[in-house]
Amino acid sequence: MSTQVLPGPVIKLIEAFSGLPGIGPKTASRLAFYLLRAPQEQALNLAEALQDLKARTVLCARCFNIAETSPCAICQDETRDASILCVVEEPLDVVAIERTREFRGHYHVLHGAISPVEGIGPEDLKIDALLERVRREPVREVLLATNANLEGESTASYVAHLLKASGIRVTRLARGLPVGGDVEYADEITLSRALEGRREI
């Protein structure tokens, strides 16, 4: 469909949707036309949710998870074990691990994985902040819970190498996670077994 015959606001919305990961021009057009036909309240609720997302969320200054306040609720929870730090790639990984109710330590979110193909190096991640945190806090174990794919494994190896000299115990999620799988898509049982069976690196 030629966008020249469409009103400007529709074109703008299609272009906005097209800029999202995994959404091509056809899906973007379908979403835009769905919202055009939807009740005004539904469209306004979506607009308000998007505004709230940017206005009312922050990165926790300690663990870099997304939150409404900094430090986040997990970092402020005194019942959790601050000596165990679980390192994950993305905030959604925290959500997945929390669903298991097996892990009661703290987190550190890297916001990605080392990927030379995509031009992402260690300096683009929250690795320096992790090293500083380990020096500053009473951490005795770092659990590397990066994804079981090439990028995740490379990131875990890199971080483990940096932590070796510190004398801190460095563990990795057990192979309950399938190779090539993402932590955020794993079910609770698989993640629970992976947490229980973590191993030294």
Ends apart, CA distance between termini: 54 Å
Q: Order of strands across the biggest sheet?
A: 4-3-5-6-7
- The CATH class designation of the largest domain is Alpha Beta
The arrangement of helices and strands along the chain is HHHEEHEHEHEHEHE
Estimated structural class: alpha/beta
What is the name of the CATH architecture of the largest domain? 3-Layer(aba) Sandwich
Residue fraction in strands: 5-15%
- Under CATH, the topology of the largest domain can be stated as Dna Topoisomerase Vi A Subunit, Chain: A, domain 2
**Count of domains:** 2
Radius of gyration: 20 Å
Let me know the average pLDDT.
91
Q: How many DSSP H or I helices?
A: 8
Overall geometric form: elongated
Summarize the amount of helix as a percent range.
40-55%
Overview of this protein structure:
This protein is α/β, with parallel strands linked by helices. The chain has two domains: 3-55, Helicase, Ruva Protein, domain 3 (Orthogonal Bundle); 61-200, Dna Topoisomerase Vi A Subunit, Chain: A, domain 2. The chain contains eight helices and seven strands; from the N terminus they run H-H-H-E-E-H-E-H-E-H-E-H-E-H-E. The chain has a five-stranded mixed beta sheet with strand order 4-3-5-6-7. Strands 1-2 form a two-stranded antiparallel sheet. Helix 5 (91-100) links the parallel strand 3 and strand 4. The chain starts with 7 loop residues before the first helix and ends with a strand.
